[in-house]
Amino acid sequence: MSILVYIEHAEGKVKKTSLEAVSFANALAAKTGEGEVVALALGTIGQDELASVGKAGASKVLHGSDDRLTAGVIQAHASAVAQAFEKVGAKTVVLAKSSLGDAVAARLAIKINAALVSNVVELPDTSAGYKVKRSIFTGKAFAETEVTTENKILAIKKNAVDLKTDGGDATVETFDVSLSDADFASKITSTERATGEVLLPEADIVVSGGRGLKGPENWGMIEDLAKTLGAATGCSKPVSDIGWRPHHEHVGQTGVKVAPSLYIAIGISGAIQHLAGVNSSKCIVVVNKDPEAPFFKAADYGIVGDAFEVVPKLNEALKAE
Length: 321
Ligand code: FAD
Hints:
Structural class: alpha/beta
Shape: globular
Distance between the termini: 48 Å
Number of helices: 9
Strand content: 15-25%
Radius of gyration: 21 Å
Bound molecules: flavin-adenine dinucleotide
Order of helices and strands: EEEHEHEHEHEEEEEEHEHEHEHEH
Strand order of the largest sheet: 7-10-6-1-4-5-11
Helix content: 25-40%
């Protein structure tokens, strides 16, 4: 028996969220005795990169290298995962909660007759039945879901799991996926980045500014800091509403929801609607001149001070590192 992990990759690299899913599966296998962790990668990606998935706890990686699978063809991916599921005799599929993961998991659930639980934050409680804790209401609450089907799909919330890094290399095995025309009923024919910058929803570090920055002419220091850190830039809703920044940077309940390792909020008050988009961040740093700003309650680190003094100094210190 095995646990199957569907892994995503972009630009030649396995996504960190997928490595978190492998780490989760590794701990789950140790808990439930479901045997080894087998990962499935689809499309064009290097063998060495796939072998390194072993560090997160997979003993084997099946590689469906058919080039037609590279562009995230959802139906075809769901078919491939179902075939791998059968091949390795799994009862559980683990994957990262993401747009592609959600789309694949929903189709897969029907194909393999499985319960699907999304936004999972910790290992299931198997002491009586199979109970899974998941995050709901944009991270403001948790729900416990009881799963009664034999086959299960668990979609893991970003940053909910500690990454395992001490495993050995995985063996990589070619996996021949049987695909039909129906698997390609719709497909992405090309993708292109809208900007050369780091993409906000995917970013590992986000530097975000609010109305405290007074005007668009002051965004240079936010961009400079983001550049130093290799970060994406974000903003609060009023900032994009007034037109200081583009709408695709608006973070929050009604904007982009981010889950970076580091979110730096500068001159943002921390209204509940903004927090709804950032509360899955691993570490939040707040810079605000008002010590009573609500954002400090959600912060891991806070700097009470004027952004116009703090941010350039912070940037200089980071550059000197
Ligand atoms: P402000 O509330 O004006 O706060 C500015 C902050 O900057 C203050 O805390 C101030 O102390 C600080 N400051 C001022 N000068 C400086 C300085 N020199 N240095 C350092 N700090 C300084 N908002 C979102 O962001 N995202 C959403 O998705 C969103 N959705 C919404 C949905 C609904 C239905 C509603 C009603 C509201 C929504 N909002 C959303 C708006 C939200 O309620 C807040 O109004 C908004 O987040 C406030 O933006 P802000 O913090 O940039 O501005």
